[in-house]
TrEMBL record:
GO terms for molecular function: amino acid:sodium symporter activity. It comes from the Bacteria. GO terms for cellular component: plasma membrane. It comes from Salinimonas marina. Its main location: membrane. This is Alanine:cation symporter family protein. Belongs to the alanine or glycine:cation symporter (AGCS) (TC 2.A.25) family. Keywords: Cell inner membrane, Cell membrane, Membrane, Symport, Transmembrane, Transmembrane helix, Transport. The chain crosses the membrane at residues 27-46, 93-117, 157-177, 189-210, 222-243, 313-333, 363-382, 403-424, 430-450. It holds the Pfam family Na_Ala_symp. It is found in: Cell inner membrane; Cell membrane. It is a multi-pass membrane protein.
C-alpha cells in the first residue's frame, strides 16, 4: 500500500522515468518539477534583472574577506563550502555521464543554460535564508525554507511539512544512500566488506558532526577546496593533453545542442531533457537545501543579499566548473557513444582510464568516496538546522537525531535501497514543490531587499541592512534582522 502511494506521488513529481539514486544518479525529472524549476529560474532572472549576468564579476568580489567567522555564525566561505559539500557529490561524476550517454554532447550546453537561470533561483532562496534566520539556544544562526515560510508567509503548517520532508530526506535517507555508494565502491574496487566500511564512515562522520554546524563547516572548508581543486587540475591536465581536439569538441557540443548534426530532432529533444534535468539536480537550486547553509553565515557585508551572491557562486562552481570537467574528460576520450549498459560512473571511469591509464579507475573511486562523504556530513547539518522548528534544539534532541542519523548510515552501508530511494524521491520532490511555491510567493520581499542592496551599491555605499530599511512582507514575526 505504502509503496503504491509513493510510486503514485513520484509519478506526478518526477514522471515515469527512473528513480533518483544518489549512488548512481538515476534521477529522472518528470513534467511537474522540471516545469516548476525552469519557470522559477526564469521568473527570478526577470524579477532580479538578470542579476547572475549583471553582477557576475561582483559575485566573486563578495568572497573577499569572507573567511572570518563570528561567535554567532560561520564565515561566508564556510557557508559556501558547506553547501558545496552537499551539492558536489556523485552527480558531478556520474550524473554528467548519464546526461551524455542519454542526450549526447548537446546535453552539456543545456546543462550550462539551466545553471545560468538556476543561479537566480539559488540567489533568491539564499537571500530569504539570511533574511529570516534566527538564533538557537546556543546563540548560533539557524534558518532555511521552514523559517521563511513560517515567518514570511505565516504558514506554520507548511513550514512543518517542509521540515518533515527535509528530516526524512537529508537527515536520514540521503546519508544512507551516500554511504551505500562509498561501501559499494570500496567493495568493488578493493573487496573491503561493507560492514567494515560502514563502521569507518560512522566513526569519521561522528567525529565531525559532534561539533555541530561549526564542526561541519570547518571540515567543509578543508575538504571541498581540496577535492574541487584536485579534480579541476586533473581535468585541466587532460584538456591540455588534448588541446588540438578542444575546438572540434566545443563545436560538437553546440551543433548537438540544436540538433544540427545527423541525429536530427530526436537527439535535440534528448539533449534538452537530459541536460536540463542533470543541471537542475546537480546544483540543487530550488530544492530548499542551500538556504540552510546560507542562514548559518555571518554575512560580509552585513546584508542578507550578500549570501545570495555567495550561494549563486556555488551553483556556478558546481555545474559550470565541476560538471564541465567531467564532460570534457568523457568527450575528449571519445566516449560519447557509450557501449550498451555503460553509463553513470562506469563511463567516467573508462574515460579517465583512456587518458591516464589504469590509475584512472582508482582516482575516480577515491573521488567518489570523498565526494559522497562530504555529502553525508553536510546532510546532517541541514537536518540539524530544523531541530529548532520543533523545539528539539537541545542536547536530548540532538542526541536522538544524531543516533538516528548514524544508525541510518550503518544500515545504508549494507542494504539494498530501491524502496528507500523511491521514498527519498518523494521527500525531495515535495521539498522542492513547497520551496518553489514559497519563494515565488515571497517575490515582493526578495525584490524589496535586493533593491535596497542594489541601490546602495549603485550609490557607492557599503550595503548594510537593518529592519525597516525597506518594506517587506511578514512583519508579524521577523528573524534576527
Amino acid at each position: 500500500m505504502i509503496e503504491n502511494i509513493v510510486a503514485a506521488v513520484n509519478n506526478v513529481l518526477w514522471g515515469d522515468g527512473l528513480s533518483f539514486n544518489q549512488a548512481d544518479v538515476n534521477f529522472a525529472t518528470g513534467p511537474l518539477l522540471i516545469y516548476m524549476l525552469v519557470f522559477c529560474g526564469l521568473w527570478f532572472t526577470w524579477k532580479l534583472r538578470a542579476v547572475q549576468l549583471r553582477h557576475f564579476g561582483y559575485m566573486f568580489s563578495v568572497m573577499k574577506g569572507s573567511t572570518t567567522a563570528t561567535a554567532e555564525g560561520i564565515s561566508s566561505f564556510q557557508a559556501l563550502c558547506t553547501s558545496l559539500s552537499a551539492r558536489v557529490g556523485t552527480g558531478n561524476l556520474a550524473g554528467v555521464a548519464v546526461a551524455i550517454s542519454l542526450g549526447g554532447a548537446g546535453a552539456i550546453f543545456w546543462m550550462w543554460m539551466i545553471a545560468l537561470i538556476g543561479m537566480a533561483t539559488g540567489f533568491a532562496e539564499s537571500v530569504l535564508g539570511q533574511l529570516y534566520k534566527v538564533k538557537d539556544d546556543n546563540g548560533e544562526f539557524r534558518g532555511g525554507p521552514a523559517y521563511y515560510i513560517k515567518q514570511g508567509l505565516n504558514k506554520t503548517w507548511l513550514a512543518v511539512a517542509f521540515s518533515l520532508c527535509l528530516f526524512f530526506g537529508y537527515g536520514f535517507v540521503f546519508s544512507a544512500v551516500q554511504a551505500n555508494t562509498i561501501t559499494d565502491a570500496l567493495e568493488n574496487a578493493y573487496a573491503i566488506p561493507t560492514l567494515y566500511s560502514g563502521v569507518a564512515i560512522i566513526a569519521l562522520a561522528a567525529m565531525i558532526v559532534v561539533g555541530g554546524l561549526r564542526g561541519i563547516a570547518r571540515f567543509a572548508e578543508l575538504a571541498v577546496p581540496f577535492m574541487g581543486v584536485g579534480y579541476i587540475l586533473v581535468a585541466l591536465t587532460i584538456t591540455f593533453m588534448n588541446l588540438s581536439a578542444l575546438p572540434d569538441m566545443l563545436m560538437h557540443i553546440i551543433y548537438s545542442a540544436f540538433g544540427l548534426e545527423e541525429a536530427g530532432a530526436g537527439a535535440l529533444g534528448a539533449a534538452i531533457k537530459n541536460g536540463i534535468q542533470r543541471g537542475l539536480y546537480s546544483n540543487e537550486a530550488g530544492s530548499g537545501s542551500v538556504p540552510h547553509a546560507a542562514a548559518g553565515a555571518a554575512p560580509n557585508p552585513n546584508h542578507p543579499v550578500s549570501q545570495g551572491y555567495v550561494q549563486m557562486l556555488g551553483v556556478f562552481f558546481d555545474t559550470m566548473i565541476l560538471c564541465t570537467c567531467t564532460a570534457f574528460i568523457i568527450l575528449l576520450a571519445g566516449k560519447e557513444n557509450a557501449a550498451e549498459g555503460m553509463g553513470g560512473i562506469g563511463l567516467t571511469q573508462e574515460a579517465l582510464s583512456i587518458h591516464i591509464g589504469a590509475s584512472g579507475t582508482d582516482f575516480i573511486s577515491a573521488a567518489i568516496c570523498l565526494f559522497a562523504f562530504t555529502s553525508v556530513v553536510a546532510n546532517y547539518a541541514y537536518g540539524e538546522s530544523n531541530l529548532h522548528m520543533f523545539k528539539l534544539d537541545n542536547k536530548p534532541g540532538r542526541l536522538v537525531y544524531t543516533a538516528g542519523y548514524l544508525g541510518m548510515i550503518l544500515w545504508g552501508s549494507m542494504a539494498a535501497l530501491p524502496t528507500v530511494w523511491a521514498m527519498a524521491d518523494m521527500a525531495l520532490g515535495l521539498m522542492s514543490v513547497i520551496n518553489i511555491i514559497a519563494i515565488i510567493w515571497l517575490t515582493p520581499t526578495i525584490v524589496a531587499v535586493c533593491r535596497d542592496y542594489f541601490g546602495k551599491l549603485d550609490r557607492g555605499e557599503r550595503p548594510e541592512y537593518a529592519t525597516g530599511d525597506c518594506e517587506i512582507q511578514g512583519k508579524s514575526e521577523k528573524g534576527i534582522w
